Amino acid sequence: MSDATLQREPPGRPWRAVAFEWLRDNLFSSWTSAVLTLLSIAALVTIIPPILDWAIFHAVWSGEDRAACLGPGKGACWPFIASRWGQIVYGFYDAVERWRVDIVYVVGAIGLAWLMIPRLPVKLWVGIAMLTAFPALVYVLLSGGMFGLPIVPSTKWGGLLLTLLISLTGIVVSFPIGILLALGRRSTLPVIRILCVCFIEFVRGVPLITILFMASNLLPLFFPPELTFDKLIRALVAVSLFSAAYMAEVVRGGLQAIPKGQSEAAAALGLGYWRTTAFIVLPQALKISLPSIVSSCISLFKDTSLVSIIGFFDFLQVIKAGNSDPVWSTPNTAFTGYLFAALVYWGFCFGMSRYSAYLENTVGGGKVGAGRT
Fold first, then answer.
1. What is the CATH number of domain 156-326+335-362?
2. What's the pLDDT score for residue 277?
3. In sequence order, what are the residues at sequence separation of 6 or more whose Cβ sits closer than 8 angstroms to the Cβ of residue 334?
4. pTM for the full model?
């Protein structure tokens, strides 16, 4: 028998050795790292047990009113969330018509899951349907007035429904507008460049609250009295344009990171400006800008709570309004509501950040020219 045949694979390393090496390399690589690790552990040991004790172990999980949550030693009042669940999810949408909102939730979740899960077929057609047919379905179902559906005014929309509607509309609409603004700011045509620069700098220099006030109160003054726009539509336009200005700067940063040789090589092959931008420059710029794009989307999702300033009861505002309900007025009610809101916001934002990390790995870590074949 040959020497190669007689050789045996070395035995695997014990898990204790692997764990010790990981701790040494990641948590105790230096004395400063060791001190920070020990301080972090001490902070977690001090903070986490009281939170778990209040939110879980001594929490109240059932009850009909505030009496169940009153008393010494009682923690979070979770029956309050259960009692307000309808308003949290649907806002003030008529109870008998909430099946329409359920259809929107289900179809939207299936469409997004189809686009996000790898190796599912016909993603292009599903994406086109989500950008065309799905918004039409949402408008018909939520507004009503067609196909025998009763009209439900937008003033009754609220809760998580309104938050998701505003954030998704703002993200989807602001992305292509932001790309056009970024390209326009880099244009060699002075008129286009100046207009894009003025719009971007003006919007980025004004708080979102001001934009919402202008869209809600000042915009109707510029139109004839007989021409009116729904207040929600005005808010959607304001949020979309506000987000587009920030998205434009994110995309412009990615465009500036592309080496000039990419465009010169495309020009040498006879490609025009639009084909070079669409097939060579822009895909690489978006790949580089992906982390910042997702950060802008996360910020927009959290900023939707500002629509309460102009009278909308979004997800957070519904919970705040419930805190003043005398039926559930206890010292722990407000803290329970805000904790629940924080967990929901964190869940959506964490999901977006994790999917962003997955996309970065899939498209090659955000490096120019990198990618899987």
1. 1.10.3720.10
2. 86
3. 323
4. 0.84
